[in-house]
Structures are given as structure tokens and as C-alpha cells.
Amino acid sequence: MAKSLKSWLKTITFYEILVGMKATLKHLLHYKPITLQYPHEKRTLPDSYRGMLALLRYDDGTEKCVGCDLCEAACPSRVIKVVSAEVPGEPTKRYAKEYYMDMTRCLFCGLCVDACPVDALGMTREYEWAVYDKRQLYLNKQQLLAIGDRSFPVREKKLELQHLNVAFFNVAFKHLPPKEG
Amino acid sequence: MVEVGIKMAFSLAQIAVVMGIVLLTVMFLTLAERKVIGWMQDRMGPMEVGPYGILQPIADGLKLFFKEDIIPAGANKFIFSLAPILALVPALIGFAVIPFGPNMTVELFGVQVKPFVISDINIGILYILAFTSIGAYGIILGGWSSNSKYSLLGGLRAAAQVISYELNVGLAIVGVLLLAGSLSLVKITDAQTGWFWNWFIFAPPFPQIFAFVVYIISSVAETNRLPFDLPEAESELVAGFFTEYSGMRFAFFFLAEYANMILVSCIATSLFLGGWNAPAPFLQFHGSLAHLAWLSGTIWFAAKVYFFLFLFFWLRATLPRLRYDQLMRFGWKVMLPIALGNILITSIAAYLFPRG
Question: What is the pTM of this model?
């Protein structure tokens, strides 16, 4: 009885609504915005931020990609298209003759980066990629390499020139961030 | 003849001033609403146009003015154009009988004029109720003539909601009318002079606090504001009855909504909170400053009106939208009995203890 009386009193005095209004008023009086004025000020991105994809090079300027197609296989939204070919004059080595990414479909899941056995793909911190023509988001190899060049200025040594252990671990532990220098 | 001319010129000047103030307030409100709700939700509100976004209303107005005016295919063109005017004019016309300041007369070229009320007619509150009911037609016709399912549903909801809550508004103010013994807003306000316990919300013999609560809730519903914004529920009906409107026609609906907010705030102030009367006589200019009493009166009136407008924003930032059946049940099964009971008790109290 007392309980129902109490709840009845709460109903007729709009108790719950007043509690809610007190909460909003408290936020008004202790005004501390959590939003940023985006184009003028930007967030500090976390280390693991997954932004625009890029193709990387070794420190002598050769492309890391060996054209193995594993990224294409790993990609859940069929963003990547690789055309693999032999390196001219070196029949034991292959490279990506053409490499396309349709960034209109990319989900930035990072599975291609995980799949790459030679760390040829990297995720940059670029995220402002709005364009007026969506065909501009169909990137070829040169564009992807250019993104990698401007986002990863410090490049890795060529794989066969690295210490054996480092080379091994690079391949084995893909969750490690890509080495810088 | 000259007398009539002077009176007319003075009335026109009053109308121009009141319209100017109302439209400026609407401009200010559009910014204030976004800012206040932003602050309540830990956001900043508009920040881009001008310092701290204070020029945002001007930018919005310019944008609406230059936007393309679209009339959808299959719309009834005449009614589609008429509806925004039908919504806006009743909202603005109600200000004609609101007393913004003390009931005083000024002699202008030998003619007695009242500077703070455009027209002191003896059925003021009835006049306002009649015209706000016409405003509902603007919404319903706008929803119907757009030839869009969202608009039609919004219009239908508006029809049912405005009729239900209009009734509660009408019944809630009957108690005040019983106590004041007049339908003129000037006389009702004059009956509340003195200390704040003479205001009708606290007034002996029977305080109108219940009527006040019923009036506030019903007026929020009548102006289609949250938590009663079913006619324009953006998560269900895109924009409700003005989904198909753009440019200046949309701006008219927008102006009508905000003008209605100001109007119901003015009525609530005049009826329940003593209008331009200060809470205590010494808070008004008196003694040697008595000739400036009108200034403090208008300031008190504005302060009370702005309190109500802030309440509108506050409710909007706090409460979610009601479901349609909840809205109807609340209106008919809760608000209406309270309003009727208030009339009964007030009339008994007013009969037993007549006000001096």
C-alpha cells in the first residue's frame, strides 16, 4: 500500500521527468563539450588507426609486393585486383604488374594487411578521402605507392638483407606494427 | 477624422513594433534552441557563422530565402500555397490582445492611446483560442495537399492532437476566467497586481496550479513540440506535415511554430504568472521612478516569457516522444478530468469566497 502510494505520488508530481530535467540542467550548468570543431581541430589518432591503404617500398625503392594474390583472396569485399607477373630477367621472382584497389568498397578491416607475407601493404592515417567523382577512388599501383611514400617515409631494409630472425618474425607475427627503419 | 487617423497610425506603429519584436525573437530562438539543447547534450551547437555561431539565424534565413520553391507533382497547388499562410497568420495575429506592459494611457496629439496593448478587446482570450484553432487548419491542409503519405499522416496526427489538446487548453483557463471575471487579458493581468501570491497560479481562494500544469502540457502539445511532436516526428514521418515544403513556404511553417511558442508563453504569463507584474511591489520601479514603471513591467513580462521558452527547450532536450495512443490517453483520460475538476472546485471556491 505504502509502495503504491509512493509510486502514485511520483506519477502525479512528474518525479521521473523532473529527475531527467535536473540531469539535463546539470549538463547545461557544467557545460563541458565533448565534441571537436572538426575541420579546425582534429583528434589525435590512435596508433592502431586503420586509414587509407597503401603499397610500400623497400629502402632502395623497389616494391615490396611479390604479386602473391593473398590480399585479393583475403579481402571480404573484393576491393583488390592483382595482376601478377615475372620480374623481367629474374624468373624466380614475381611482382605485381598491375595492382588496383576500388576504395569505394573498402571496409578498412585490415585483413589484406594481415594476409600479406612480405608487409607490402600498410594502413596509413589518412582519412579525408572525399572526392567529387567516385572513379577517383579506383586507385592503381602508382597512386597506392605514392600514398605509401608520403605516409611511410622511413622504409624497411630489403628482406634478404635483414637479419634472419627479423625476417622470420616479420612473416610470423603479423599483429606487430610495421617496422619503421 | 483626425482622431481616427492618429489612432490608426499609432496602431499600425504598434503592430510594426510587435511584429518586429516577435520575428526578432523567433530569429533569436532558432539559435538559442540549438545552443541550449547542444549545451544540455554536451555539444557546442552552431559555431561556424560568426563568433560562436551567433549569425547562424541570418545564414539560415538567407538560405531559406534563396532556396528553390518546389511544388510536388499531384499537389493541390492552391491549398499547398495557402497552408503556410493559414499556419502563420493565426500565430502572429494572437499578439494583438497581449498586454506587454502596464495598462496605462498616453495622450498623443490629444488622443488617448494605450501603448502596451494593440487592441484591448473584451474577449481577448477567446479571440486567441479561436485563431489558434484556425492555425491547425494550416497544418492539416498542408499535410493533405502535399500528395505525400508522410505529410498526410502528419496532418492527420496534427488534427487529432490539436483538437484533443485545444480542449484542455480551453478548460484549463476557465478557472482563471472564473477568478478574474473577465475575458480581456488586460483585465486578467490587472487582477493580479501586488505580491506574487495574487498571481492566479497561487491566488486565493483556490490556486490554479493544476490548471497551470494542464495548460503548460497542453500548450506544448498544441505547438507540436517535443515530447508531443508527433505531427512532425522526424524518425517516423521524415518531417511530418511539411515534408514536401521548401524555401519560403517551409520558413513560414517554421516561423509559425516559433511564433506559436511565443504566443502560448505570453498567454501563460498573462493568465497565470501575473503578466507584467513583478513578484513583489518593490521590485518594480516606484516612488520617484514611478514614471518608468512600464520599463520594469515589460522587463518582467519578457523574463517570464523567456522562462517558458527555455522550458520548451529544456523539455525537448530531456524527454523522448510519446507514442500516439499514449498521447491520446494522456490528453483525454488524465488532462481532461483534471481540468474539469479544477473548474468545479474553482467555481465552488469562487462562489464561497468571492474575491474582493
Answer: 0.80
